[in-house]
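Appendix B. Raw example, untouched.
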Amino acid sequence: MDDQASDKLVHDSSAGIDRLVEIMRRLRDKENGCPWDVEQTFTTIYPYTIEEAYEVGDAIEREAWGELRGELGDLLFQSVFHAQMADEAGLFDFQDVVQAISDKMVSRHPHVFGSEGNDFSADDQVDRWEEVKAAERAAKAETRVLDGVAVGLPALLRAVKLQKRAARVGFDWPSTDQVIDKIREESEELVEARDKLTQEEVEEEMGDLLFVVANLARHLGVEPEGALRKANAKFVRRFNKIEDSLAAIGKTPEQSNLEEMDMFWDKAKAEDKAAKNT
């Protein structure tokens, strides 16, 4: 594309995805592009991709629909960025990305795009989806039960996915009572490690405990990553109330103590419960 056509496309607000792809190409131009964009690699951009995905989730959690459009755009830009770098390396381009996901969606939904009927429940479709994915893994020579569970997932999310995969072949506790018993066992081992073992062994026992907690969340039908995000938000909200209560008596947290802050914490907790009951 010549410079004049490129400029016209870049400044055409109605040009859609082609405009974004061209903007990305221009940003990566080694002679006239943005120096920061030019020097990026898959490895350096990857953390931003993860961050943008979380910002989409944050906007949804807060029901900030006015922000969601922009956050989804930021996430889309990450896909275009990776595709442009892949194109430069001769691996694939953005159209290949679009074709791959389109082909996958058609393949995984024969009841919508094929000749099969659509007499399936949502649970039935999940089971069928897993069967299709298992066939895809087999085609990639991913023959072990846990093959294909992405290493780069957030640790809690990956723990649940690993456990779900193992559960499909019968490696699972039948009831939450047994999972809770295992949590008690792992907690005791962590205390013992704290008192007698090395920091590395303490870390290992902490990991074991978190893994079982993730398993309990799965058994209870709770998504642990989301549950922890909500717990984080609740902690921020209540601690902010502690600061507000201290400010009302002319203090900062640094000028307070644990006993006083704990008293204000209990007050914030009671206010939260009262608000839920109204």
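End of appendix B.
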